[in-house]
Amino acid sequence: MVKVTVWNEYRHERESESIRAVYPEGIHSQIASFLKEAGLDVKTATLDEPEHGLTEEVLNNTDVLIWWGHKAHKEVSDEIVDRVHQRVLQGMGLVVLHSGHMSKIFMKLMGTSCDLKWREAGEKERLWVMNPSHPIAEGIGEYIELEHEEMYGTHFDVPAPDELIFVGWFEGGNVFPSGSTYRRGSGKIFYFQPGHESYPTYYHPDIQRVIVNGVRWCEPTSRAYPVYGSSQELEPIKREVLQ
Ligand code: ZN
């Protein structure tokens, strides 16, 4: 069974009554609930726990980490970011949601500013499937429609993705690469744009389906971490003696 840890900053929900009305137990609990229904082994972790809930033990027992953060990216300690980064290079999957695009871990993995355009106007978003045969789009029709979502617009300052799964169109005219995949070291990364804290995006069945598919796609393979460094010859090399 895939072991998932859902990490959430968990500040908006505690500090704002209107956000708490949407996610009374926190965004992490809502995401955990539909992942459990899908048969995954799910735990949660939040910023204000010791070591942000991401101890060595937790990470060593995590196949796929989900990341939601927004207003407190800078409060995530560099030591924990390095720990997560190491685990991704060793093969742990990472699903980065919405405003996690500016998290320390995503920026470190991308190596760019990860900046974008944004607008909070409650506009409609239509997420078009760009890659219908991709496992992350399994079970999704031609598009997903969200009544209200925060606009994220291109240009998105990230490296060209390995695969583009969704393009989001917004009522106000912008477009965005809303679902994309990357590989870093032995790890797989899925970035998925929807999920502003004031909208009920993570209750939408298609959004849930994409996140479940994303987790399954990011699952590590059983291949051992590659052996690097000095390498013995596999068969005798004919050495010509230079005179
Ligand atoms: Zn947002």
From TrEMBL:
InterPro entries xrefs: Class_I_gatase-like (IPR029062), ThuA-like (IPR029010), Trehalose_catabolism_ThuA_prok (IPR009381)
Protein name, entry field: Trehalose utilization protein
Cross-referenced Gene3D superfamilies: 3.40.50.880
Organism listed in the record: Paenibacillus forsythiae
Domain of life the protein comes from: Bacteria
Ranges where the ThuA-like domain occurs: 3-218
Pfam families: ThuA
